[in-house]
Amino acid sequence: MATPIHPKTADQSPITQSTQDSTAIIQVIERAALNPEVDIDKMERLLQMQERVLDRQALMAYSAAMAAMQTELPSIAERGKTNNGHYATLEDIVDTVRPIMKKHGFAVSFRIQTQESGIQVTGVLMHQDGHREETSMLLPADTSGSKNAVQAFGSSTSYGKRYVLCALLNITTRGQDDNGHTAAPVKLVTPFQAGQIRQLIAACPPATQEWFVGKYGDAEQVPRGDFDKLRASLQKRAQPHHQHP
Q1: InterPro entries, from UniProt (predicted)?
Q2: How far is it, in rounded angstroms, from Cα 92 to Cα 123?
């Protein structure tokens, strides 16, 4: 009788191997559950092991889908306008990315929380296999232009959604006059410099934050040549954390 030939483990994808690991652990748990001599502590350890395998499997699926989706996400035209410049509107961003996200098994939701210091907008990017990532932004109410309380809340919420969605998907924006053509690649700021910019922009007024997202999209997208001038400009506009009467 011929011996069946099985594919080598080394030839299998990480996701396939993780699925087989998960199936093997489930079989062990099923056998253990039927054995009256297996104690509760051992069962709990087996269940924890299974949970870790499932989490790893979901993370790998998320990462693979994200990598594939990134190649299809275009830069968004900046059709919104403020006194400080142009920005990509939330409607344009959502209309552009929604079908691409659906294709790769992603969905996004937002949590809005009102706090003493302002409005916190949290974006949650979920993948169909269970893994999710989230990012948050705390904003003061945008009272520019004589907005009433409801308008100020809506303006800050809309800005926060744009910002966290761009951050979650690494979306870039472009001016309408470039016909979709991008400039030659430029060196971007270092992670440390991006962290400095992110701290400064969080302390700036909503109008400045809106201008920043419209121009750069995210701190990691700032050209290294703009860093010094941008940092100095944001430092002038940043509001102190504690204001005294």
Answers
A1: ERF_bacteria_virus
A2: 17
Beta bridge partners of 112: 121
Alpha-carbon distance 55 to 53, whole Å? 5
pLDDT band at 179 (very low <50, low <70, confident <90, very high): very low
Q: Where are the domains of the chain?
A: 16-70, 76-175+187-237
Residue entry with tokens 């974006």: 123
| 107 within 8 A of 101, measured Cβ to Cβ | yes
Q: What is the pLDDT of residues 186-198, one digit of tens each?
A: 678 888 888 888 8
Contact 25, 55 (CB under 8 A): no
pTM (global) more than 0.90: no
Q: Report pLDDT for 39.
A: 72
Picking from 101, 107, 24, the residue whose alpha carbon sits closest to that of residue 68 is 101
Q: How confident is the model at residue 130 (pLDDT cuts 50, 70, 90)?
A: very high
Burial 100-124 (b: 16+ CB within 10 A, else e): bbeebbbebeeeeeeeeebbbbbbb
- 77-88 tens-digit pLDDT: 888 876 566 788
Handedness of CA 48, 54, 60, 63 (dihedral sign): negative
Bridge partners, residue 115, by sequence: 118
